[in-house]
Design a protein that fits this description.
It is built from six helices and eight strands. By secondary structure, it is α+β, with helices and mostly antiparallel strands.
């Protein structure tokens, strides 16, 4: 039967153990969250999508601006979507080496190379908590949902 065949293959080939910490990570505190964000952004190879609020973007400019400059030099495609009016973005847009759009979406997350996701669980900067997930399936799904489900206003 096919079940027996599957068991034989499992016995002969074995399985690769996946550690939970390689799939997901809970981050508490602004410094831990920013450190992890820097790490995943610095390791980006192809594409970065950042969805954030205007308040969070202003708070994180010092952290992400030098990284975005490095990513631009590496040829990484960086897209930033901010829950703000297009007029509000003009001042920030000059500082960032990225495509920036205004969106009607109050959320905070980062998708790196369609494989890694970092969710911030609130917009309160004094009590930062985030969840990092390594899942190509989920990252691609979230990106598609964001691209097709959010109403993008031109800046």
């Amino acid at each position: 039967s096919s079940d027996y065949h599957d068991l034989e293959m499992l016995y002969s080939q074995g399985i690769d153990m996946v550690k939970p910490e390689e799939i997901s990570l809970l981050l508490n505190g602004k410094s831990n969250l920013h450190s992890h964000m820097k790490d995943i952004l610095n390791n980006a190879k192809d594409e970065v999508v950042i969805v954030t609020t205007m308040n969070a973007l202003i708070q994180e400019l010092k952290v992400i601006t030098p990284i975005l400059e490095k990513l631009d030099k590496k040829g990484v495609d960086v897209k930033i979507a901010v829950n703000a009016m297009p007029e509000e973005l003009k001042a920030v847009q000059k500082e960032l080496k990225a495509k920036i759009k205004s969106v009607d979406l109050r959320s905070r997350f980062v998708i790196v190379d369609n494989k890694k996701i970092l969710f911030m669980l609130s917009d309160k900067h004094d009590e930062e908590t985030g969840i990092s997930i390594n899942s190509e399936f989920f990252a691609q799904s979230l990106k598609k949902l964001f691209e097709h489900g959010s109403e993008i206003k031109s800046s």
